[in-house]
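Hey L., structure's done. Input below.
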Amino acid sequence: MSEKTEVLYNATCPICSREVDHYAKLSQKAALPITYADLDDPDRLRDWGLSADEAAKRFHVRKDGKVISGLPAFILLWREISQMRWLARLFGLPGVHWVAVKTYDHVAAPLLFAMHKRRQAKKNPASSTAR
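Output:
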């Protein structure tokens, strides 16, 4: 591992936060140079070169200055955490990788983003109607 790995995720998403909390515990226990940050900070988003919606639509990891998103970001993170490497190998297999990318891109990510938008609308109903 050359440089610190950074993870940007949606901490308001119950599914995302539960999963990332698990990764954070594993990486902390192993003293890995991985940081985890919520996408709620506009300055952080600017640093990553993402808008709030872009950040909320997908899972993001930054390594060696390069931002990776979606399933490839998960695979990069899983390779860093010894207990998760088997997942990186599994989802790196050609057929599995193709199906998993399509499932993440066309089912999981859009569904999680729609749930995120609904949570935002409930939290701030005035902003969802003022368009």
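The longest strand covers residues 5-9. The mean pLDDT is 92.

-- N.
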